[in-house]
Structure formats: C-alpha cells, structure tokens
Design goal:
Blueprint (H helix, E strand, L loop, with lengths): L1 E6 L8 H16 L4 E6 L10 H12 L7
C-alpha cells in the first residue's frame, strides 16, 4: 500500500500536526507490513502560482454541468 503524506505546515519540526502524522505513520507501519510512504512537502517543492483567475477557472470545471452538445 502506498500512502501520500502531504506536509503543509511551514513550522517543520515545531508543527504539532506534523508530529501527530509522523507518529501515526510510524505506528501504522509497524502494525501493517508493506507500507510505502511518499512525502510531499509543499514548502520544498515548486508549485505553480494560483491567483483568483486560476482558481475560478479550475473550480468552473468541477461545478459546471457537462455539456449535452456533441
């Protein structure tokens, strides 16, 4: 099983939520074999800029009903 751990706190080691997730994952991995954890730290990755126009455009795709036109 693969687990994606997304780190969103800029507080690094001082983050309570990060400590909680790390403790959970350590225990879960000892209880269940074959766990692979991939960690995505959004503060270490390049992410595209999101402005109001981009957000509006991306949410429009999810909220507009599908077109019945061919």
């Amino acid at each position: 099983m693969h687990v994606l751990n997304i780190v969103t706190s800029p507080r690094k080691e001082q983050s309570a939520s990060r400590a909680l997730v790390d403790a959970f994952l350590r225990e879960y991995m000892t209880q269940r074999g074959g766990i692979v954890v991939d960690t995505l730290d959004v503060w270490q990755e390049w992410l595209p800029e999101f402005d109001a126009k981009t957000i509006t455009r991306s949410t429009k795709v999810w909220t507009d009903p599908p077109s019945s036109e061919p």
